[in-house]
Amino acid sequence: MSTETPLDLKKTVNLPKTAFSQKANLAQTEPARLEKWAKLDLYHLMRQAGEGREKFILHDGPPYANADIHLGTAMNKILKDFIVKSRSMMGYDAPYVPGYDCHGLPIEIHVERALEKKGKKRSDLSRDSFRRACREHAENALKSQTRDFKRLGILGEWDNPYLTMSNHYEAETARMFARFVERGWVYKGARPVYWCIKDQTALAEAEVEYHQHTSPSVYVKFPLESDPAEIDPALAGRKVFVLIWTTTPWTLPANLGITVHPDFEYSAFEHGEEVYIVASDLVEAVAAKCGLGTPKVLARFRGAKLDRLKARHAWLDRTSLLMVGEHVTLGGEADAETELDVSEAQKKSDSKAGTGAVHTAPGHGHDDFVIGKRYGLEIYCPVDNAGRFTPEVEHFAGQRVFDANDKIVEFMRERGVLLFSENYEHRYPHCWRCKNPVIFRATPQWFIAMDQAHSDLVEKDEDGRDRTNYTDNLPENGAASLRGAALEEIERVKWIPGWGVDRMRNMLKGRPDWCVSRQRVWGVNIPVFYCAKCTEAVADPAVINHVADVFEKESGDAWYTHDAKDLMPPGYTCAGCGAQEWTKESDILDVWFDSGTSSIAVLENREELRWPADVYIEGGDQFRGWFNSSLMVGVAAHDRAPYKTVITHGWSLDAQGRAMHKSAGNAIEPDKVIKQSGAETIRLWCASSNYFDDMRGSDEILQRVTDGYRKLRNTARFALGNLYGFEPDRDTVPLEEMEEIDRWALAELERVTRRVLAAYEAYEFHNVYQALFNFATVTLSARYFDIIKDRLYTFAPRNKARRSAQTVLLRIGDALARMIAPILVFTADEIWENLPNRAEPSIHLAQFPSANDDTQDALLSEWERLFAVRDDVLRALEEARVAKLIGSSLEAKVTLEAPGSTLELLQRHQSDLRYLFIVSQVELRPGNDVSINVSVADGEKCERCWNYSTRVGESEAYPTVCERCVAALREIEQG
Ligand SMILES: [Zn+2]
Ligand SMILES: [Zn+2]
Ligand SMILES: [Zn+2]
What we know:
Elements: H1 26-40, H2 42-50, H3 71-89, E1 99-100, H4 105-117, H5 127-151, E2 162-163, H6 167-182, E3 186-196, E4 201-203, E5 208-223, E6 239-246, E7 257-260, E8 265-271, E9 274-279, H7 283-289, E10 296-302, E11 310-312, E12 319-324, H8 342-348, E13 357-360, H9 366-374, H10 401-415, E14 418-431, E15 439-448, H11 482-490, E16 494-496, H12 500-510, E17 514-515, E18 517-518, E19 529-531, E20 537-538, H13 541-554, H14 558-561, H15 564-567, E21 582-584, E22 588-589, H16 591-596, H17 598-603, E23 613-619, H18 626-638, E24 643-649, E25 652-653, H19 670-677, H20 679-688, E26 695-696, H21 699-721, H22 728-731, H23 740-761, H24 765-794, H25 800-820, H26 825-834, H27 857-882, E27 892-898, H28 900-908, H29 910-917, E28 921-926, E29 931-936, E30 940-941, E31 948-949, H30 963-973
Parallel strand pairs: 1-2, 6-9, 7-12, 16-24, 23-24, 25-26, 27-28
Antiparallel strand pairs: 3-4, 3-15, 5-6, 5-14, 7-13, 8-9, 8-10, 11-12, 15-17, 18-22, 19-20, 19-21, 27-29, 30-31
Helix pairs in contact: 3-20, 4-5, 6-13, 11-12, 11-18, 19-20, 20-21, 20-24, 21-24, 23-24, 23-25, 24-25, 25-26
The structure holds zinc ion (3 copies).
One zinc ion (ZN) binds at residues 942, 944-945, 947, 961-962, 964-965.
């Protein structure tokens, strides 16, 4: 019997102890942790740690350096951070060089507005001081974005990001243009392009948005000029008209032809004195729409019959040529223009309007242009930059096209050439910037040919000098075209989700030549000169590369600060006339050309990177944007796609699936969330649902995320708190000496580790989160932790069974921290700091745990069966509690009856059962069925562990405790 003073019982219980607080206080602790990382220079430590490892390159699609970041921008960057950090923890050297897209119209507009506020006009500034103001604006915007991105916990080369406006980048952009010229894919020509009449500039594919728009839909008669007997003898001597349908009456003054499908059947039907030609399938619909009664068909013939016959313009003294084209459909607007999106095209095909005879204005539509070229029509565009009819347009000169629509309809009605008109709702392209409807308009522009065979277009003289006439040189179909090569390349790329390849294929198949010139100022100038004497264009790779070298030293501003002769290589003479005087091209390059160049300007030019990238990840709008322009550049530079994998993420929408707008009051502002609950909330939200679909965000959804965070945090806190006093080197219990339930917990940890690593590998972060969340809340909190609490708290601190549980807790805490680290960057690092003996100063220098191959199936399924019994027991205990038979479960004794193998299983684990059920006593009996009986536990309540035992009072030194506690206290006394 002990002669020493009995211990203070309360002090002998091992209560959890940790500096890892229950309340996260992320809004305060995150900035402190960012400072710690800055002091460590963590990103560069990661680079050092990665040296010599296999590289993994995620190439950053540059956000536009204009506005502040919103939830969508944050999500994009966070997903990238998930990828970079997880690949780094898989053992790759995964550098991250962020970029910024710095040129372009939105910045020009912003600067103009800022000038207006100061009472100044843009014209008060010279071109280069205006550009300086744009540069300054971009610099400020990207500084503020950088601050925001860093605040989100994104690690990267923030002190040296790539900027599309840096000298080197601008030089590389010019060199890339030279490369396209070298391949013979660049030409200057008049082609219809999207044109914003408000901003007075051409727009790229990616710069138009489709919105509902109401247009006048009109059915118009074009009299046949050719002898109708040529079509069918039955029509001899009749007054025949071809009926066209259009929703853009303002393009009718530019009509030069009518296109029919060569293989469709057309009908000529009688209405009074007149005979109308429409596609046979549409006769009924057209007659009904235009109120023509029951049509009497006089002749049927294939569209090919009409080829090269002539009609008269509906009111102008001009021929309208009948042509055949495969693009004609019976579904309405045959001129789908360049509507590239599959979904857009599908929406359109619903329309039932039309006549099967398509009004064709080569200056105002893509298909019109192509067919017009084929038939030798003029690319006629009597509309100026501001969208006004030029003086040659009879009756409507000077009017704006959209205003003229109704007047043209009225005019046609008075002339008797209009059969029917109504308002028509359709998807129509709008300017992304000013949101006004855009027009299709032919203007002289620089193009990159999609279908030109390599260098077919370039003519060289005997000295190898470029003698190409770049003016109006229409490329023809060729085998090894940019389009063909790009289509081949996309099949080698891995698209996630898989539909990406179809979307890209459709986009590539439908896209017209790439118009790369813009009538703006803030960008890289098209480095082309014109002979001052004969106006011949000099688009010579050698000259462009010479200019690029000047850009490299002085930035693209050199185009404005130097005279043409200073930018030309000395002694360069015009191949056309031998003159040596030049003027400079005033257009700049499409900003998509800039950003598309990034794989070359960045991946190839930075030592720590390489070309091609392993992965690009952006929103679905980039199929027409950056995915596309990058592909064009990759093919031009190396005949290869610049990426091996392309991932598409969805949009951030509100809870109802609507776009977020500050003005609509449904926007989640990252700034606010960070101030309230930390960046971790946004990061965890990004992992909480499948980003391949659209991501829903609202205060309520964020609250759920915060709740989830709290559960994960509490799980980590339990592990950390119970590691108090555990020294891994001294106290670790080998696997074979562990309690069985501890080995079960480790087997579960292995299982979740395998799942999580596979999900990271597949970029499925929502599956990472789900797996870890279930592991934390179900496997750990509701099962394992609940069961080992008694052992951790009441056993002597150094008892081997307790050390066994602690050994597992360390493994769990360590593995959880590593596995959650790419997502919860702050919290994982905090867990890391509170774990004993971690080698690396930050978790972001550590690697994922490796999962071993031994799946321990037998152990796991045995415990699955035990937990099934446990679930039944817990239910019975709950009923007993409700019936007021017991209070806490430790007041209970459970008597289990079970048959055969179940009984054997339970008997095998007899000593575990009281802990498993968290009761004081368990009795087993054979029975025919499983039955559970709950009764009041035998004996007295132990003051120390609160279990009931018939042996409380046996010890004289500790008369209020049970036999287990007596043993524990003896162990403690012995030290
Ligand atoms: Zn606009
Ligand atoms: Zn010349
Ligand atoms: Zn006890």
